[in-house]
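Subject: two folds for Thursday's group meeting

Dear M.,

Sorry for the delay on this. The cluster queue was jammed most of the week, so I only got both jobs back this morning. I'm pasting them in the order they finished. Each block is the input sequence followed by the predicted structure tokens. Could you check whether the formatting survives your parser before we put anything on slides? The first protein is the one we discussed after the seminar.
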Amino acid sequence: MGKALEFTDGNFEAEVLNSDKPVLVDFWAEWCGPCRMIGPVVEEMAGEYEGKAKIGKVNVDNNPDISVKYGIRSIPALLIFKNGEVVDQIVGAVPKPHLTKQLDAQLG
């Protein structure tokens, strides 16, 4: 069973920007209620997309550099990266089908 990866200021370039697969990144924080709602969905998707896409989380409190670089102002914010570029952005706790649809669009 796949588990959401932990992306940090230190490994973001290697894990996300240089990934050969699309990457869904969940920007979140412990104190954010909606983030806790979407967290289990992100974990589920990590298992379902294993081998097809990378799925992970960035704790904005612990990794301010990435959060600032991508202009994260409200969380949860989910960014989809492909070939090192942001190709889609979802802000707020959205239903799982919405997330899977956005990610599926990048898998082709």
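Second protein, same layout:
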Amino acid sequence: MRTTIRIDDTLYREAKAQAARSGRSVGQILEDALRDALRPRGTPRDAPPLVVYGGSGVMPGVDLGDRGRLGEVLDEGLAFDALR
């Protein structure tokens, strides 16, 4: 669809420069920006997959209720595999 819109001169120059850098048209830049603006907030765009590790719970020596001890375990510099 073709339409006419009024855009701030500075904003248009920025869109035109972005289009040139990315090898796309100004129309494509504006369409992408409008799609992004209309996307419901709170919806992850391209959320990375959640990494899940096998195991049976908290590692030995880790008490999630004891922040001090948890910090000590993290500061020991041991590889996580060594704490299992």
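Two things I noticed about the second structure. Residues 9-22 form the longest helix (14 residues). Residues 20 and 73 are 51 Å apart (CA to CA).

Cheers,
T.
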